[in-house]
Amino acid sequence: MAMAIRVFLILLLFLSSFNLSSSLYEDQVGLMDWHQQYIGKVKHALFHTQKTGRKRVLVSTEENVIASLDLRHGEIFWRHVLGTSDVVDGLDIALGKYVITLSSDGSILRAWNLPDGQMVWESFLQGSKASKSILYIPKNLKADKDDLILVFGKGSLHAVSSIDGEVLWRNDFVGESIEVSHIVQSADKIYVAGFVGSSKFYVYGLNAQNGELLKNDYKTLPCDTFGELLSVSGDKFVVLDKMRSKILTINIKNGEISYNLKPISDLVMDSPGQAVILPSRIPELFALHINSHVLLIRVTNEGELVLVEKINKAAAVSDALSISEGQHAFAFVQHEDSKIHLVVKDINDWNGDLLKESIVIDHQRGNIDKIFINNYVRTDRSYGFRALMVMEDHSLLLVQQGEIVWSREDGLASVVDVTTSELPVEKEGVSVAKVEQNLFEWLKGHVLKLKGTLMIASPEDVVTIQALRLRSSEKSKMTRDHNGFRKLLIVLTRAGKVFALHTGDGRVVWSILLNTLRKTEECEHPVGLNIYQWQVPHHHDENPSILVVGQCGPTLATPAVLSFIDAYTGKELNSLSLSHTVAQVIPLPYTDSTEQRLHLIIDNNQHTYLYPRTPEAINILQREFSNVYWYSVEADNGVIRGHALKSNCIRKVEDEYCFEFRDLWSIVFPSESEKIIATVTRKSNEIVHTQAKVMTDYDVMYKYISKNVLFVANAAPKAKGEIGTATPEEAWLVIYIIDTVTGRILHRMTHHGCQGPVHAVFSENWVVYHYFNLRAHRYEMSVVEIYDQSRADNKDVWKFVLGKHNLTSPMSSYYRPEVVSKSQSYFFTHSVKAIEVTSTAKGITSKQLLIGTIGDQVLALDKRFLDPRRTLNPSQAEKEEGIIPLTDSLPVISQSYITHSLKVEGLRGIVTVPAKLESTSLVFAYGVDLFFTQIAPSRTYDSLTEDFSYALLLLTIVALVAAIFVTWVLSERKDLQEKWR
Amino acid sequence: MEKGKGVMGSGGRRWGVDFSDNSTSRDIPDPPGFSRASLDQDDSTLSRQKKDAESNWKSQKAWEVAQAPMKNLLMMAFMMWMAGSTVHLFSIGITFSALWQPISALQSVGKIFEPYKDNKVELLGPKLLFIALNLGGLALGIWKLNALGLLPTHTSDWVSSLPPAQEVEFSAGGINLG
């Protein structure tokens, strides 16, 4: 018996040693986490296929990414994510080996090495005023043997050496308010064309060698112009007049300006619509979009306009591609139901098509937004074409020979909002997927694992084991699991597409391009705003659903759209185009009998609308009518107002789902000294396990756990800009914790000499915020914990034994409980992009802060480090409780990066979701990249680790049983011998 | 594991001496100086004396048994002191054995004093002492349990299991969307 206990203890020790470290081992990477790299919606694309070797396409995107993609598979060769303010305006190739990018409104010019993406040089271009920025790399234009790059940006023209990025000369065009729109090269002269105002057309001739102004000319055009000037070929330009009914052709031969005006109606008879010149650059041609047709118009040498072709249902027209000397081709695409037609034509030969293909594209990708073409030589020496298409949902496709060679879901680079959904329950008798393995394979896997544990596995076995672990079928099943690790992450992207990602492996389970968020005539620039859980049924037969809220334009005054989506299938159940606007969406803590959550939508006209629009919902709301409050933060005016529902709307048409509200309270911050820069509140679905905080001497502090609290950070008006723009004397940060029912300020604190940006997270009874301390020149993190003093007199044990206490009775903000707060500040090394806190199913597990650092990684920091009770010399009892001795700065332990060696480029947000297993929290970080992992802040105390060897356990048990049996037999035999002696 | 244990166990007895039997076979003369007279006393006095001696012996034994937990108590106290005041496997084990021993002893008070039961022997005193000492042991165990912090004597022990109070009001909001 004693032996058995000993063995058990040893086994226990052995098991517990598995969990001693919270960081990962190298072979654990990818077991529970996944990482996906994206680039965003492509703006410019350049093919690089001339040389033998790896064919690639260079792209710059709306997420400010420059990348080189493999043309064969669409993988990323290299990628650079520039900062959010570093918008890429131009992309080109110089000297055949450098990728040149112009960014930050034409002020930063960089050269990247084409094969590996290393930066070769970087130039900051000076300028005085904001202007359009143009990157122009002329062919064979040399100044002192240097190939020139011409850049117009910040109101001046720069000639930059392409070898080292040195600015050779600069022309400011001082005194002129010329909006340069084109740079044209002719021999060793450069012509710069542009407008002053909207009708004065200027041309400057410059010497390419030294930037000397040779001549200038201007002409006042007969009419104002509309839109951009398009260069047709070298010295010819076209632009529309103000009324968009005439085409103006401008010729600047040798710096002399001549123009020609022609009404569009001369070209086509039936064209009263609004015309737009498409920005496709095709020699001698331009494309005019009018009434859903595209007209291709040729500009002859004499400046005459000739209609070449009229294309119906055209979606996009590419730039021209030079395929051989004097031969140019361009492509356009037409939509037809579920198919698209890709046509490549020779500019000089209209009779035939170089290529005509029909491709079937998933209609969830929407229309084609942009197309880029490239040619290759087939084995029979004819030309083949491949086309890179940017779709409406921001995805990228490569089409070749009528097939989609590869596609990238780059819409996922611009996630707007995230929610989660449970997966369906596994039904008996229904084989869910192919993933079920047979017994033999299971056994084989475990034997391999055992080999690995006993360290007798060969290198090939190790590889097989790792592969087995990585594509464990268990984690990617489409059903709910016992531990709650498998869920659907439902993300809304900027393109208005909703994706459901599986948490097991990150694959897209379904995706839907919402019709309500597509451009229509009523809804010009629809924007997806937020995504909510609409219905979470507990009954397994029903599917949960998701609510997507959007609006028809970038401003508040545009009407709202709602869309309801089935979370399992991705089908749109219903969509509503609302007559009112949406300023706030408030999910109420009440559900109806079908478990649809009640939502209040507040518009900008002091009205509140209830959804779902059912009488039952009205009844539920009427019951809780006096307990529903809401508040609005007017950051510009520095006012926070509290409101309550008042009555039904008084209108001509009665609407019982519309309510008016009254103002209850307002907090007006002094505008000369404070400006709201950040607000944060508790997550509405956060679960708190206990209201008591036990001190070392068994004393109890009662946490002030109210969901109706708001953290507000105000900065001094002078210090609300970038760090370094204000002196410590004129910078301060005032933080408030406000009760949002009564408007009572629970806590106020001023940090002198500090400024934003403030990132904060509110959980349970504490708030942690991050800001910059100008005096110390370091970032700081502070913690404030709030305790309820009014409950502190519940100290008698007998009261609890007999149950005579009021700690579980409902609590109202109107009791005005007395609160005390404790706070402390620490230095922190990093600047921060986002802060989140882990959330677990029951709230028992200790918390970790997840800090998205400036290096686009996610750092997990124990909340224990941000405990206001930390002292320099904690007593023995305090140490036992887990209080860490006070240090002035928070430690950054490199093992506690949950993103380990990966980067979530362009990190914007972190979302945590509780798993069913109490110890574990699921973390999803999004930016340009997506990253998902599971973390256990107090280690996985409630389950065996994934790599626990069941086979070894089984083997141990079998061995023990065998040993018992053998020893028993031996002892019997010996006894018998003794007896015979 | 002495030899022949198995044989003994099987029941056969090879030889035996009965020392109490003094009446049989007096072939051998008494050793010099041995007076058989003292043995051949009056039967009644003999049995009374014998009984007195036995009851004396019994009560003495009963007191001894009653005092036995004292040693145990001291040993327990020493072990508890050795175990320290932090909660771990040994301190918990010792504490629980310190609690279990008195309880099991108390349960079997009757059984323990069964052999010493006699009309003439006063067992109440020893029993009371035994019970008192065991209660002392129990108290020591409970004291240790408390010292380890395993007794719910503090408010914190009761509050931690209470769910947080519900809130009457609901409030939400923020900066306008869009």
TrEMBL record, chain A:
- Translocase keyword on record: no
> What is the residue range of the signal peptide feature?
1-23
Q: Which GO terms describe its cellular component?
A: EMC complex
Q: Which GO terms describe its biological process?
A: protein folding in endoplasmic reticulum
> What membrane topology term does the record carry?
Single-pass type I membrane protein
Indicate whether Signal appears among the record's keywords. Answer: yes
* Segments traversing the membrane: 948-971
Keyword annotations of the record:
Endoplasmic reticulum, Glycoprotein, Membrane, Signal, Transmembrane, Transmembrane helix
Domain (EMC1 first beta-propeller): give its ranges.
24-410
Lineage top rank: taxon: Eukaryota
Q: Pinpoint the ER membrane protein complex subunit 1 C-terminal domain residues.
A: 763-980
Q: Where in the cell is it found?
A: Endoplasmic reticulum membrane
Q: How does it assemble?
A: Component of the ER membrane protein complex (EMC).
Q: Which family does it belong to?
A: Belongs to the EMC1 family.
Know the name of this protein?
ER membrane protein complex subunit 1
Automatic annotation (TrEMBL), chain B:
Q: Which residues cross the membrane?
A: 78-103, 123-143
Q: Where is this region: Disordered?
A: 1-54
Q: Which GO terms describe its cellular component?
A: endoplasmic reticulum membrane
Q: Which UniProt keywords apply?
A: Endoplasmic reticulum, Membrane, Transmembrane, Transmembrane helix
Q: Which domain of life is it from?
A: Eukaryota
Residue ranges, compositional bias (Gly residues): 1-14
Write down what this protein is called. Answer: ER membrane protein complex subunit 4
Query: Taxonomic classification, please?
Result: Eukaryota, Viridiplantae, Streptophyta, Embryophyta, Tracheophyta
